[in-house]
Design brief:
Layout (H helix, E strand, L loop, with lengths): L5 E2 L23 E2 L9 E3 L3 H8 L8 E4 L34 E7 L2 H4 L1 H16 L29 E7 L9 H14 L8 E7 L11 H4 L8 E5 L3 E5 L21 H16 L23 E2 L6
Parallel strand pairs: 3-6, 5-6, 5-7, 7-9
Antiparallel strand pairs: 1-10, 2-3, 4-8, 8-9
Helix pairs in contact: 1-4
Length: 309
Amino acid sequence: MKRLLTLVLAGTAGISLAGLMTAAGPVTAGTVPGTGSYHAPVHVINLHAAYEARLRHTTVGLPAGIFFPKGMGNLPGRGGNGCVDPYCPVAYNEGPVQINPQVYLLLWGPDWSSDPSQAATASYLESLYRGLGIEPDDNWSTLTSQYGDASGDPTFGDGVYEGTFYDPTTPPSGVDTTQLAAEADAFAVNQHITDLADAQIVVATQSGTCPAGFYAPAVCGDNGGYYCAWHDYSNEPFTNLPYTLDADSACGEDSVNSNGTYDGLTIAAGHEYADTITDPQPTGGRILPPLSRVTSAVAPVIPIGLPTR
């Protein structure tokens, strides 16, 4: 029987906003201690030289799991039968899934440390990823465990979080897909990650970076923006997570909670995390529901069109 996997991201209950980074200025060596006992240190790594070297050798596919901004319209699903998400049956195209997901949060840019508001956002992201996959507290993303491949089903155990890393070099303005992939590739080599198939490198760029195509007209102007976030594959799966607060309500701010500054960030991060588990090596863009379906009570319902049981 075909099933439709839906992920509904709840509000911000239980997520600590304790400061993760120092706000006095950018840190260039060592680690940045968290201000609360809950937070582990942030590993500071300068990837500039490795990134520059990797640019000449990076190959990347077509971004998938595209999270569309509010107002992009009612886009059809991929059911192939005229249906519209989230009412389309899923279809397994024989691709791999992640059996043992491992998430690395890579904060790219000096402002993650020097700007207090961005440091608070970093703390929020660290708390979010730290809690993913820990059962029974996380009972939404672990639903992906029912979508396996020939090698087995996704498993989570004590969680998926592998740490937060801070690259204080400044990302290129309008950073494109190849440049994001090069940063992810350089990071994987720097950290000696051997299980590349199960890795998820979340490249979170600082405010004002305006990755190519990111929809944040108030900050980025008219750059042809059409997305809030996406994931892709180079030597390893990676996520392009722009600073969604630059997009305001277009990418989900206040869409779940009346004072939900981080609602859109949670939705985008959770969306790409779950979609990467079920489609880590995409061969084509997957159309997902636009943010306009958000109600005051819940976040978007995200169908994952992968293996069926």
